[in-house]
Amino acid sequence: MNTKILLVASLVAVFTVGYYADNVVAFAQYMGNVGSQGETGTNTLEEALEIQHRRVLAAEANPSSGSGTPYLDANGVAGAAVIAGAVFGGIAGAFFIRGRSGKYAAMGRG
User: What value, to the nearest 5°, has the Cα angle with vertex 67 and ends 75 and 60?
Assistant: First the structure.
């Protein structure tokens, strides 16, 4: 009985998601608004290329600025990895130490 209820609930969920998924379609490939006479709106390909060209020029003018990702900072990639490793390593170490003793430990080791 429970498997039938679970199957029906799963099918209802799948069909509900499929019904509403049509409303959230993203049209990211279209950058500009093109009218019926061929006129373009904002954010056309040419404007996007001009913005990218200005970004490249700004990066070449300031080589010391880098990519903006602080790898060795506590807020950066390596800092976050070290902090996460310390937290999860401490938790794992606590489990390993507690696992060596207790009523489920092997005889003769605790």
Answer: 155
Tokens 């373009």 locate to 40
Contact 32, 48 (CB under 8 A): no
β-bridge partners, 40: 34
pLDDT in tens, 8-59: 999 999 888 877 776 666 655 555 556 666 665 666 677 778 888 998 888 8
Phi, then psi, of 46 in degrees rounded to 5: -65, -40
Q: Report how many helices (DSSP H) and strands (DSSP E) the chain contains, helices first.
A: 3, 0
Closest-CA residue to 43 (of 29, 57, 54, 56): 29
Q: What is the DSSP letter of 85?
A: H
pTM above 0.70, yes or no: no
